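Handoff note, outgoing to incoming analyst
You'll be picking up this chain. Sequence as last confirmed:
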Amino acid sequence: MLTATSRDYRNAKIESLHEAAHHHRIWCGNMTKLAESIATEGVLVTLLVRERPRAQGGYEIIDGVRRFRAASKAGLKTLPIAVIDVDDLTAIQMQLEVNLEREGMHPMDEALYFKDLTELGMEPSAIAKRFGRKPREVTRRLALLGLSSRSRDAFAKGTIDEPAAMAMATVDVHARQHDILSAIAAGTMATEDVPSYVARGYQAP
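Most recent structure output, in case you need it:
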């Protein structure tokens, strides 16, 4: 029987591999360069996966999404995988742990992972302890979930910085968030002015 520590190594057809619904990674680096390397040398590091429900079939990637995307781009037909048996909570924890070890993880990605964990019953204090964070850091990340989809996209693209995003996340009416984004796009508001603008109750200085 497979466990979180025992692994079954095999090769899998690339079409049988699927990214997890709870995979969050805004920036995955230079995929073209990685695809060129994989096309020449192949995939040197095995992907960590778990089996999907029988009705769905195939495998869900826990660690190796960048390699999977690059291999798809390079036209590979099969990939080396290591299959483990873990539940949703453990799979998400493993994914987050891997991503936190890499540079450049976006705060919004962290917020979405923390959200997934809280929905599976983990308290923010437990998340903080598990990943070596202060509880207030986890709370700050979760606060970003107050951003609308459009605001999240702006944050991911760098249109607004983290202080602006944190301030906008406190604005319950998404239309007001969008007004701020429109003002930034029009050049009538700078992203560094957003926190004070929100604190003043949306009044110009």
